[in-house]
Amino acid sequence: MPDRRYTLEEMQDRFAIMDLYDRQLAAAEAFDMEAYDTTFAADARVDLSDFGQPECSYADYRAWLLGLRGTMVEAQRITGGLRLTLEGASARTRVPVACHVTMQIGEERRLTHTGIFYEDLLERRDESWRIVHRVEALAWSG
Questions:
Q1: What is the pLDDT of residues 81-140, one digit of tens each?
Q2: 17: closest CA among 65, 66, 75, 79?
Q3: Which are the contacts of 86, defined by CB distance < 8 A and separation ≥ 6?
Q4: How many domains does one find in the chain?
Q5: 3 assigned to some structural domain
Q6: Alpha-carbon distance 133 to 142, whole Å?
Q7: Among candidates 30, 106, 21, 110, which has minimal Cα distance to 75?
Q8: pLDDT (tens digit, 9 = 90+) per residue, 46-94?
Q9: Is 140 left (phi over 0), alpha (psi -120 to 50) or beta?
Q10: CATH number of the domain residue 27 falls in
Q11: Residue 123 contacts by C-beta under 8 Å, 6 or more apart in sequence?
């Protein structure tokens, strides 16, 4: 099977989506919620069922993340290959992410390692590509 040839618009969309994930991960590590807000639609839904949290609105997810700020003192998230299917002004992605997080629990600092998949639905909105639905699926932890 020959390699697929992409249109200019498909290439622009792919680069914009790669930039969205780079921006989202950097914002998450820095707890920069203004930058984080540029990656999710205001009406997005987030499913954290694998982590004991119910599906919620983006606003509730954002508040939950901010509540972790005192516990998650340092973090590094490393993404693997972006699996991306473009469907016009929408896209489906599956992004493997290795999360290495230093947790402050009382007087103890503990390094945790977790592998997750972001299983996202994205839409091209007026401002740019945005995540409109995310499932954070647990792959492994140790």
A1: 999 999 999 999 999 999 999 999 999 999 999 999 999 999 999 879 999 999 999 999
A2: 79
A3: 10, 13, 14
A4: 1
A5: no
A6: 27
A7: 30
A8: 999 999 999 999 999 999 999 998 899 999 999 999 999 999 999 999 9
A9: beta
A10: 3.10.450.50
A11: 41, 89, 90, 91, 129, 130, 132
Measured from the Cβ of residue 89, the count of other Cβ atoms closer than 10 Å reads 11
| pTM of structure | 0.92
Asked if residue 1 belongs to a domain, the reply is no
Per the domain annotation, does 2 fall within a domain?
Answer: no
In a domain, 86, yes or no: yes
For 38, the domain range is 8-141
